[in-house]
Amino acid sequence: MKLIASLKLQPAEEQAQALLETIERVNLACNYISEAAWQHQRFGKWALHKLCYYDVKERFGLSAQVVVRAIAKVADAYKLDRKTKRVFRRRGAIAYDDRILRYKADSTVSIWTVRGRQRIPYTCGEHQRELLKTRQGESDLIYYKGQFFLNATCNVEEPPPYNPQGFLGVDLGIINTAASSDGEVFVGGKVNGLRKRYRKLRARLQSKGTKSAKRLLKKLSKKEHRFVTDVNHCIAKRIVAKAKAASFGIALENLKGIRRRTTVRRHQRATFSSWAFHQLRQFIVYKARLSGVPVVFIDPKSTSITCPVCGFVDKRNRPSQALFSCLSCGFAGPADVVAASVIAGRAAVNQPNAAGECLAAS
Known about the structure:
alpha+beta, 2 domains, 14 strands
């Protein structure tokens, strides 16, 4: 599995200026290469190398390997489609490989810049240091809010998944961020309240439009995202730990395309559009893979209105958002926990295929 170790560089003032100048010049070169690619309609890496390697090297004063990485960046950008000319941000991230970036044992890096090689110290957590032992491939130099970061690609070995003794069903939602089939509910009130508060604050500051309001908006940017990401990390870690302790697999709904398939009332649109279910699902999947916990995906159709005891399906089984009450057998309980039980039951009954998706809905 590929994971990213993020390191914070601590350059001196002159070194910071050299890094910033390098980023700007490389992106300027990328725009030059993109213009040439667009004019000549040659988008492959080797075709661009033959087209403009020597010209770019001489024009922008870059080393040979930096030019190679710039050409690769442009070629990768055109892989998605070749119908739009690519334009690169002035201070966008640039890639380094082992020829132009070396990690040292004393928590420093030797990095190429337009002002020559620089030896720059970095700081990171213990988890990132462990990941660096398996570093493989390129590292991205990123300039963000006046600071420099290196994102190093690390190759982590995955343990083989075990044969599950059952499944822990997980129902994802908005009111409750997640609910598991063993009865644990992760309430989403704190996240939803914070999102609502920040929406109101942003609207008020944007309507004000003063310099101080813009400064505060800049200061607040990404805070909401960081908070939600931390909450989702904690929930995913808890779910994977429970499943592994019981030798269970994890069953999730396949919610791909749910925003296109469903409609909500106007006052619910902002909350629904900011629902980070995909992020939580990705966290659960990658943490499960690192722990050897198998994960399967099931068809989400009618999971919230199906009785896990008798299998009766009816919209009236759910008289409110929080309550489930079966009209056929009388079984009742918290609606999200009941839905998670249905998910777990479907995963246990249906045989998952090689892609990890169950073959049938029920």
